[in-house]
Amino acid sequence: MSNVDESLEQLLSKASPRPVPDDVATAVAREAVRAEWQAVTGKHRTKKNMVGFAVAATILVAVFSLFNQFRVPDTAMVQVASIQKSFGPIFIVGEQSVLTRADNLEVIHAGQTIVTGEESGIAFAWAEGGSLRFDANTTVEFRDDDSVYLHSGRVYFDSTPSELISGIDVADIGSFKIETKYGVVSHVGTQFMTQLESDELRVSVREGRVAVVGTYYPGTALRGQQLKFSGRQRPVVLDILEYGDAWDWIGRTSPTIDVDGRSAHEFLDWIGRELGRNIEYSDETMEQLARKAILKGRVVDEPAIALRQRMATAAFEWRYEEGTIYVSISE
Amino acid sequence: MAVYLDDKKLIKQLLAGDEPAFERFFEENFARLYRFALVRLSDDPDAAREVAQITLTRAVRKLHTYRAESALFTWLCAICRNETSDWLAKQGRYREHIVLVEDYPEVQAAVDSLQLPEQMSPEHHYRRVELLRLIQVTLDKLPPRYGDVLEWKYIEGHSIKEISGKLDIGDEATQSLLARAKRAFSDVYSTLSNGLDQQLNELAKS
């Protein structure tokens, strides 16, 4: 070996391995760049006839990777959530950080990472109790049975959702934490939304109290407040509405509910919880009527639409007034 | 003027919608751009990931403008540099005079100077840290396979057999690849480290 070779090898041995982006970040970036590339080359148009095959292949790949995950020895496959509703493209991060379409996924295990695409959304029944929702363009890793890691995007958690959302255990709620690069978000019986963008974390509280153990500072927020973390600055608390545009996506992810044999009061209670508004009856008689009126069938539409449709067929009138839905008897 | 035929061919395949070409384009460049951005964004991994992604997205939009007069990665770095500035501006994090050694256009050799006395002056310390950082920069400047084999062999300590397995080639081919990679590394590193000396001299004079 020449002296030059030797000194070169010595030099290299002093260096550290080059930093690499994590698998999830790589998978998300790959899909974003691929989408742009396909748009530029028009590949998505010319290959329409391949879609059927591609979908079938993707499902096979998804099944194969799930099968492989089941084969991994010494790794307990802990089911942490089940999917109650999803729409738009949903991906799971697979080996070599490749995103695999997983629109038909039903259960989630600890260790899996889910990515939602454009105009997507998912509602999960959290195994330990509670309703978990993801908005579009969100990436979340399911760490274990009491925590998830939010890489980017927007998630919502309701620890005590309406009983009408089948499959959600409301009797025995375990703990639930959302970990982020800015810190850990945990709650005390609540509905809250956590939003992570590249340079800030926002935690908005609809009900109850949320505590954040931030990387640099702690913070708490109560109902109607939003806690904002940015860089190394102290968190800022803002007053917010518990309903409206910022929360609308949650209604879109609301799972189908079975209202057969349930009262109009229970239905309205579900509406109120999903929309972040109080239900107020015009008087006691109205409330009694709502408790006695029995509904039939299932509700597949999002709450705001379901409210319009169901109330139109009942003898009830309703109106929004800021954070309240007023219900009265039709004249 | 040199024409980068391999890169030119890759771009042609990309424009034709070739999927393996896309995989190669992404695999060879994303992590390298991430590191290129990382050092210019105060080691913020999220920002670096975002900027690397934006760079590749922008690049695929203007693939047709690539003339192969510089290496593809050099072309991507130019886009990445602009995106980094835009990102910093958007964040209100203007940092003036971010001039890294590898950004200097003209540079030459020096490797032995890593053997420094124990009591280091701040300049010596800075030089040592920078020289070590330049190893990573150099690995990224090489053709992707060259950087990988050098890192696997001399930094991570993999055997020739393991590397052959990773690359799915024979041991002899791996040895030959390593020899070529070392030569290329030596050329680029000496160029960069001389640039560092030049920069230190200018600092000392100012």
Describe what you observe in this structure.
The complex is a heterodimer of chains A (331) and B (206). The longest helix of chain A is centred in the first third of the chain and has 21 residues, at 51-71. Chain A contains 8 helices and 20 strands. Mean pLDDT of chain A is 82; it is low at 44-75. Chain A has 2 domains: 32-249, Jelly Rolls (Sandwich); 256-329, Phage tail protein beta-alpha-beta fold (3-Layer(bab) Sandwich). Chain A is of the alpha+beta class and 331 residues long. With 206 residues, chain B is mainly α. Chain B folds into 2 domains: 5-90, Orthogonal Bundle (Rna Polymerase Sigma Factor, Chain: A); 102-205, Winged helix-like DNA-binding domain superfamily/Winged helix DNA-binding domain (Arc Repressor Mutant, subunit A, Orthogonal Bundle), CATH 1.10.10. Chain B is built from 8 helices and no strands. In chain B, helix 2 packs across helix 4 (72-90), helix 5 (122-141) packs across helix 6 (144-155) and helix 5 (122-141) packs antiparallel against helix 8. Residues 104-119 of chain B have low confidence and may be disordered. The chains are: A alpha+beta (331), B mainly alpha (206). Chains A and B meet through helix 1 and helix 2 of A and helix 2, helix 3, helix 5, helix 6 and helix 8 of B.
Outline the secondary-structure elements:
The complex is a heterodimer of chains A (331) and B (206).
Chain A: H1 3-13, H2 23-41, H3 43-46, H4 51-71, E1 79-87, E2 90-93, E3 99-101, E4 107-109, E5 113-116, E6 121-126, E7 131-134, E8 139-144, E9 147-158, E10 177-180, E11 183-197, E12 200-214, E13 218-222, E14 225-230, E15 236-239, H5 248-252, E16 257-258, H6 264-275, E17 278-281, H7 284-292, E18 298-299, H8 303-313, E19 316-321, E20 324-329
Parallel strand pairs in A: 9-10, 17-20
Antiparallel strand pairs in A: 1-4, 1-6, 2-3, 2-5, 5-8, 6-7, 7-9, 8-9, 9-11, 10-11, 11-12, 12-13, 12-14, 14-15, 16-18, 19-20
Helix pairs in contact in A: 6-8
Chain B: H1 5-15, H2 19-40, H3 45-61, H4 72-90, H5 122-141, H6 144-155, H7 160-167, H8 171-205
